[in-house]
């Protein structure tokens, strides 16, 4: 009977029309160029989908540590933006726009390498002086004159976070309110293994070399810079040792600690007058009774003994190093060559990107909504937005319709989950204000650029954004705000806002195109949509209610059942290996839940579209595949990725997502629909019979 059903399905799919348009031919060729048809899809679907492309030595550009579909689209979007930047005269929607003009100013100053070289080290020395001077470059530096509160506040005002991080953000337990938040931070390497792991000596040497190179370029004596580099390395090693490890930072309940400034002051006793530091940073007194959120109280209390154990000169060298480190990309070529050497040790990057690509990256990072406005006008039509909305509506419906089938949840929790799902806000393409030149200009009104120096323009932008963040303390949460600008190739779910956001940058080929077979669209952007939606119900997101508040709305029985099912995923992904190193199934759990749930919603929505539209999907020429096979191939090729060996290992610790190959293998092994589509016999690697399922 089952063989007949498979045959019947294939016969129905054989009735699909083969698309012969140039777009379809190009798409089919691109997909086939990645595939290795000598691999059995039931043995390793990732290799089947991706291996041929990954074998090409030119597959990854030398300036990238990871290269795949996201990277390719990002570079293509950058090329579009470059043309827009080259052509714009500062007008937008038929009027002069100060915001668009500022984006042009920033881009042009970034592209002017001659001015960067001519300015030399003077701009950096001025910043160093602003944060209290550097013992290595100032022979008159005096510990008694070094004001830790003033200098630390100045560094934070420039967007740099030595020692710890402080920012204003949404209160996890009251999403309408903004609060001051404190968290851990303070190391050059985000991966704690760099300080104490098996290869720590390699990274120790790279750190010291980089520190010495940069400090000597700024005028430090060789012997003094060598000693300071060692002292700062040892200081950061101690800080790294007290940081809470990623696997212990997955539960928002355990991270949330409500305190007052007065209570927190005790943790800084002996080295920092917290009240004065906060007053300098916020430019007004913050009362001791002000409540703040502390995400790493143990770190902050342990930090004091480390700080008090060293001389002020070490603190000054450490603070200034972090300030300098953040500005090296804006410096002359000699500095950036030293940075490249350091990056190679970390991630295997062998060269810098082309200057235009760096400048587009920095321009969008600096004034992204202005750049995004031009990108949207060029590359994302209103028709596209409406079509994407229909796809997203189908994904949402599929998820909501699947909830009653979630038998492991009790009725009350299931009903609340459905309420939350229905309350999720979706944002597509861009925030509305960028379509109005006056509103766009008002957003950047206080951002002032001067016409010649990218270095100074970057500092102005840093100050602008820090002040913009700190001013949120006086206001209620702005639920119209976007955390990403429109040109970005990314998407996100915000638990505090209970919203899913899809910038125009990712709503492009090959994730989405109106003329694509719907199997490809649902397998790519549909999967991304389902992924972000499922984040609202992952191991962290599920703890926030429909209003975005951290709230215990699950019954104990449903929590127990959820934990049992997610433990299955933890064990599954922890068994995967990269270069003999196991993945961390706990730190990647949230993303793995979203991956596994997202593709199910996408597939269900695709099947519903086929049933309800009455339209037969189209085939691609040269790919003799059914519609569901194309769906799974489209999904898999989203993750075809090349890593440098260095970055492959780094990602196991620093990336909350699983290694790309296992985002495919781990998900599809858990789907009987995949095994059915490719007729994988039970017991084959892709149909082992052992499956994990949450949503």
Automatic annotation (TrEMBL):
Q: Which residues form the Peptidase M13 N-terminal domain?
A: 41-431
Q: Which InterPro entries has this protein been placed in?
A: MetalloPept_cat_dom_sf (IPR024079), Peptidase_M13 (IPR000718), Peptidase_M13_C (IPR018497), Peptidase_M13_dom_2 (IPR042089), Peptidase_M13_N (IPR008753)
Gene3D superfamilies (UniProt xref): Collagenase (Catalytic Domain), Neutral endopeptidase , domain2
- One MF term in the entry's GO annotations: metalloendopeptidase activity
Q: Which GO annotations describe the biological process of this protein?
A: protein processing
Peptidase M13 C-terminal domain location: 490-694
- What are the entry keywords? Hydrolase, Metal-binding, Metalloprotease, Protease, Zinc
Reply yes or no: does the keyword Electron transport apply: no
Pfam families from the xrefs?
Answer: Peptidase_M13, Peptidase_M13_N
Q: Which CDD domains does this entry report, sorted A to Z?
A: M13 (cd08662)
Required cofactor names: Zn(2+)
Its GO CC terms? plasma membrane
What domain of life does the UniProt record list for this protein's source? Answer: Eukaryota
Please indicate if the UniProt record lists Calcium as a keyword: no
Q: Which family does it belong to?
A: Belongs to the peptidase M13 family.
Q: What is this protein called?
A: Endothelin-converting enzyme 1
Source organism of this protein record: Capitella teleta (Polychaete worm)
């Amino acid at each position: 009977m089952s063989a007949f059903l498979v045959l019947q399905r294939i016969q129905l799919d054989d009735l699909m029309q083969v698309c012969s348009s140039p777009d379809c031919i190009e798409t089919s060729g691109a997909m086939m160029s990645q595939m290795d048809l000598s691999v059995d899809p039931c043995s390793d679907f990732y290799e089947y989908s991706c291996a041929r492309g990954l074998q090409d030595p030119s597959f990854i550009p030398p300036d990238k540590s990871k290269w795949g579909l996201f990277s390719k689209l990002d570079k293509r979007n950058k090329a579009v933006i470059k043309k827009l930047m080259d052509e714009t005269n500062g007008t937008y929607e038929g009027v002069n726009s100060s915001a668009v003009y500022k984006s042009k100013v920033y881009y042009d100053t970034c592209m002017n390498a001659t001015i960067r070289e001519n300015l030399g080290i003077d701009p950096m020395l001025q910043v160093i002086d602003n944060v209290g001077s550097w013992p290595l470059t100032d022979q008159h530096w005096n510990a008694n004159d070094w004001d830790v509160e003033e200098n630390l506040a100045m560094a934070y005002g420039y967007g740099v976070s030595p020692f710890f991080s402080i920012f204003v953000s949404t209160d996890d337990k009251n999403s309408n309110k903004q609060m001051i938040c404190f968290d851990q931070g303070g190391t050059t390497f985000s991966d704690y293994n760099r300080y104490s792991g098996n290869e720590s000596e390699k990274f120790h040497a790279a750190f010291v070399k980089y520190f010495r190179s940069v400090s000597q370029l700024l005028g430090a004596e060789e012997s003094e810079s060598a000693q300071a580099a060692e002292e700062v390395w040892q200081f950061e090693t101690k800080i790294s040792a007290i940081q809470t490890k990623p696997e212990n930072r997955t539960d928002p309940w355990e991270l949330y600690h409500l305190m007052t400034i007065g209570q927190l002051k005790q943790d800084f006793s002996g080295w920092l007058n917290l009240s004065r530091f906060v007053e300098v940073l916020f430019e007004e007194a913050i009362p001791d009774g002000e409540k703040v959120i502390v995400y790493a109280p143990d770190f902050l209390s342990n930090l004091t003994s480390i700080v008090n154990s060293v001389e002020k000169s070490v603190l000054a060298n450490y603070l200034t190093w972090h300030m300098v480190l953040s500005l090296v990309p804006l410096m002359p070529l000699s500095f950036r060559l030293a940075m490249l050497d350091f990056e190679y040790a970390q991630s295997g990057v062998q060269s810098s990107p082309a200057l235009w690509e760096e400048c587009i990256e920095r321009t969008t990072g600096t004034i992204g909504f202005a750049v995004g406005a031009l990108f949207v006008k060029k590359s994302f039509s209103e028709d596209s937005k409406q079509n994407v909305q229909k796809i997203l509506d189908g994904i949402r419906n599929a998820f909501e319709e699947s909830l009653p089938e979630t038998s492991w949840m009790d009725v009350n929790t299931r009903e609340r989950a459905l309420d939350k799902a229905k309350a999720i806000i979706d944002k597509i393409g861009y925030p509305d204000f960028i379509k109005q030149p006056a509103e766009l200009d008002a957003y950047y009104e206080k951002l002032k650029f001067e016409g010649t120096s990218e270095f100074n323009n970057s500092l102005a932008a840093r100050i602008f954004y820090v002040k913009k963040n700190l001013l949120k303390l006086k206001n209620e949460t702005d639920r119209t705000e976007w955390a990403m600008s429109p040109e970005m190739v990314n998407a996100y779910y915000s638990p505090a806002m209970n919203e899913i956001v899809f910038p125009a940058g990712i709503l492009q080929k090959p994730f989405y195109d109106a003329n694509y077979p719907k199997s490809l669209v649902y397998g790519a952007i549909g999967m991304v949509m389902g992924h972000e939606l499922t984040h609202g119900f992952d191991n962290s997101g599920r703890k926030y209610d429909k209003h975005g508040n951290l709230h215990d709305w699950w019954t104990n029985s449903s929590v127990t059942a959820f934990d049992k099912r997610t433990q299955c995923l933890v064990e599954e992904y922890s068994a995967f290996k990269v270069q003999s190193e196991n993945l961390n199934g706990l730190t990647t759990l949230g993303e793995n839940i979203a991956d596994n749930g997202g593709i199910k919603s996408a597939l269900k929505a695709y099947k519903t579209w086929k049933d309800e539209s009455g339209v037969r999907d189209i085939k691609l020429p040269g790919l003799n595949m059914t519609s569901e096979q194309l769906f799974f191939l489209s999904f898999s090729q989203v993750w075809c990725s090349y890593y440098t060996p260095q970055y492959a290992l780094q990602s196991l610790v620093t990336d909350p997502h699983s290694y790309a190959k296992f985002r495919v293998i781990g998900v599809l092994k858990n789907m009987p629909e995949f095994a059915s589509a490719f007729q994988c016999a039970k017991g084959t690697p892709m149909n082992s019979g052992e499956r994990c399922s949450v949503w």
